[in-house]
Write a structure and sequence with these properties.
- The chain is mainly α.
- The chain has 10 helices and no strands.
- It is globular and about 45 Å long.
Length: 152
Amino acid sequence: GLRSRFWPKEWHVGFVFSMGCALQVWSLSPSAWPSLLLLVIGFGALCAMSCSHITAWEVVTVDRDDPGSLLNAHPMFVRRLSWFDIALGLSAMAAAAALDQASVQFALLSVGISALGLAWLHDRCDQFSAEFLRVTADFGLYTPLLFFVFSG
């Protein structure tokens, strides 16, 4: 339908996952909401990109035959996934450089590094199995955990 053509499931999953991750923090510290908003958007975009890559790499028949799938509804986006990764990575790093809160800087830096890593991986995706690509894309979503490891 229109919803899936305008806003594919991969993007929906990415942003819902990001919001779900933030709910625990927001429930314990509602005053943290404004300072976390940029991080939630950045992480949501990273999750959406990860899901988009997995769809592009696996190309299952269901997605190929569905006119509302990411592959068919947004072919230009799929063809330029690496460029969107690079834009996200550089934007996250620029935001990190512009902000003065160390914890937010580190989290945005981890989003930027993961996004650039997705671009690198996508440009070499024909060298790896779909399973390896999926695991690597999912692993990239753990980079914000570096924030907790190195901020203590």
